[in-house]
């Protein structure tokens, strides 16, 4: 994600878009926190 933001600020929109899409794909398949470790609040 951060690489995408840097590339975006440099005007490299296509490469920035690719980096951000990859970051989202990785987050969906390998999140920082497993979904079951997030506490449920009511």
Shape: elongated
The counted number of beta strands is 0
Question: Topology as H/E string?
Answer: HH
Strand fraction band? under 5%
> Which stretches are low in confidence, meaning pLDDT under 50 for 5 or more residues running?
none
Distance between the termini: 32 Å
How many separate helices?
A: 2
Question: What structural category arises from helix and sheet content?
Answer: mainly alpha
State the domain count.
1
Offer a quick outline of the entry.
The protein is mainly α.
Helices and strands, with pairings:
Blueprint: H1 2-9, H2 13-29
Outline the structure in words.
By secondary structure, the chain is an all-alpha fold. The chain contains two helices and no strands. It has helices at about 1-10, 15-30. Helix 1 runs antiparallel to helix 2.
Features:
42 residues, mainly alpha, elongated
């Amino acid at each position: 994600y951060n690489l995408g933001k840097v590339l975006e600020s440099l005007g490299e929109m296509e490469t920035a878009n690719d980096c951000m899409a990859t970051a989202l794909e990785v987050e969906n398949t390998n999140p920082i926190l497993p979904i079951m470790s997030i506490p449920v609040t009511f």
